[in-house]
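Hey,
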Amino acid sequence: MSDELAAHLRPAAAAQVTVRRQYEVRSEDDLLTVRHAVRAATVECGFGLVDQTRVVTAASELARNAYIHGGGGTLTVELLKRRGGDGIRLVIQDEGPGIPDIGAAMTDGWTSGNGLGHGLGGARRLMDEFHLDTRPGLGTTVTVARWTVR
């Protein structure tokens, strides 16, 4: 992970996971299931409509990336509690080829497929925390979190 990406990570070390759910991302139907599950989790967590939309949009972008570029994967949704507020953490993992050029992949407009190229950079902007771990041939894991109180 680059230093630039590490600077965007504000770890939830003191957070307690109160709920953990896992979803497969292997088909177009799974992408819809993920959107609905993440929306329900944001409501459960107490997010307002704008923050619900931010989290669902980030989840959708990340899940779609895992499905299209990583050959499918798994989304873990964690509801978090910490002093001063609740939060949600999303961990999307795939076993695809990895991201060869993280800098390019984080640049708006860059795409390795037919998309608009807002996936990773957009998810980073929509969430309070962002961590990317990718290795050639070993897949990619993206961990993001958003808090009700920042």
